[in-house]
Amino acid sequence: MNLAAGWVYLKSSPLFGLLLTLGAYRLSLAINRRANGNPLLHSVFVGVALIVAVLVFSEVDYADYMRGAQFIYWLLGPATVAMAVPLYFNLPRLKRALLPLTLTLLAGSALGVISAAGLGQLFGLPRELILSLAPRSVTTPFAISLSEQIGGVPEFSTAFVLISGVFGAVIVKPLFDRLGYSHDWLLGFPTGLAAHGVGTARAFQLSERAGAFAGLAMGLNGVMTAVILPVLLHWMGV
User: Fold this and answer.
1) Distance between CA 97 and CA 132 in Å, rounded?
2) pLDDT tens by residue, 136-157
3) Domain extent listing, the chain
4) 236 with 121: CB under 8 angstroms?
5) Residue 66: is it exposed, middle or buried by C-beta count within 10 angstroms (0-12/13-18/19+)?
6) 160-197 b/e (C-beta count within 10 Å ≥ 16 → b)
7) pLDDT, tens only, 177-204
8) pTM of this structure
9) What is the distance between the alpha carbons of residues 181 and 174, in angstroms, rounded to a whole number?
10) 146, 229 in Cβ contact below 8 A?
11) Where is the chain membrane-spanning (predicted)?
């Protein structure tokens, strides 16, 4: 089998999506480390850009790519649950901050939905897009499920979730430096609320405790958003 025939075979195989995802992940990590962790070169953002570039260059459909990438996609759920491990080691600190964390969760969950749907209404987006945008502050598995249930488009919701996460990961450190905040839960919890898994990964880079609080916020925000999302959308007339 020559090189051209091997390339054609690989493109049509589920292995293509799997190898492309793993390769893009490793390369994006190397680029981010080479840039000393610069948030503008966050591994998620760079990894997605690499995958999109390869798919366009190789003329492979997204559906064909996902036949292999779905094995990694399936791991999103267990990876989300695994973020509870560092939180367990910070349980005493969590108990002491229970009330402010609860109030922050309620306010952050509601604000995430209202801001997304409100901006969609303000700019006159179609209802389907607004419904896809509304769950953008929760992690991808939650967002896809919620989007399907309320009439949105899961693919659009996934894109909005990614954009929100990358944006949050980029601005969190400069913003909190500007505000003068350095406490772990002040850094981590709002980051997990607004920027879900991508922001949580960034919080872990800054501090393990901040990452633990971000993981907690991400999980609780998914549950809270699932409860309040239909109510808030009805209230806003979406």
Assistant:
1) 33
2) 888 888 888 899 899 999 888 9
3) 1-60, 76-236
4) yes
5) middle
6) bbbebbbbbbbbbbeebeeeeeeebbbbbbbbbbbbbb
7) 888 877 888 888 889 888 888 888 888 8
8) 0.74
9) 10
10) yes
11) 6-27, 39-58, 70-89, 101-123, 156-176, 212-236
